[in-house]
């Protein structure tokens, strides 16, 4: 049985899940964005079967999240480097950190978001454009965009 594709969906969450919705893929992106590059580094970090690691890395390359760059010719070996699209996934991972710390860490935070330079704690927030005024999460919602279908407009009408 062939898996359903979510790419035709107009929902950006469904489209995003099509790219990285498998949990190994999300953990691979976490590791890649934290500086891991090589197959053996990912395998050691995640304790993942080589065949699964190969499939997940290939899917992330195919999705444009990672770029496969040779670092050795004999034997031929590759590094996996985040693309600009992959680097932009960091905001999704930070949202996971914030949500997980709030709801899934009764023992306390094992990971904190901080400013790389000052070490000051960071909190996930949204800003209004163009004035860049920060808004709390409870003030944020969604609405139909210019490309929304009638079905999407109906779906979002009562939000």
Keywords summarizing the entry:
159 residues; alpha+beta; two-stranded antiparallel sheet; two-stranded antiparallel ribbon; 42% helix; globular
Descriptive account of the structure:
- Helices cover 42% and strands 13% of the residues.
- It is of the alpha+beta class and 159 residues long.
- The strands form two sheets. A two-stranded antiparallel ribbon has the order 1-2.
- A hairpin with a 4-residue loop joins strand 3 and strand 4 (133-135).
- The radius of gyration is 19 Å and the shape is globular.
- The model has no long low-confidence stretch (mean pLDDT 88).
Estimate the helix proportion, in percent.
40-55%
The averaged pLDDT comes out at 88
The radius of gyration over CA amounts to 19 Å
* Shape category: globular
Sheet with the most strands, sense and barrel status: 2 strands, antiparallel
Q: Name the beta content range.
A: 5-15%
Find the structural class using helix and strand composition.
alpha+beta
Please state how the strands of the largest beta sheet are arranged side by side: 1-2
Strands, total number: 4
Q: Helix tally?
A: 7
What letter string, H or E per element, gives the SSE order?
HHHHEEHHEEH
User: Stretches where pLDDT falls below 50 for ≥5 residues?
Assistant: none
How widely separated are the two ends?
35 Å
Give the arrangement of secondary structure elements:
Blueprint: H1 12-20, H2 23-33, H3 39-46, H4 50-62, E1 66-73, E2 76-82, H5 84-87, H6 90-103, E3 126-128, E4 133-135, H7 150-156
Antiparallel strand pairs: 1-2, 3-4
Helix pairs in contact: 2-4
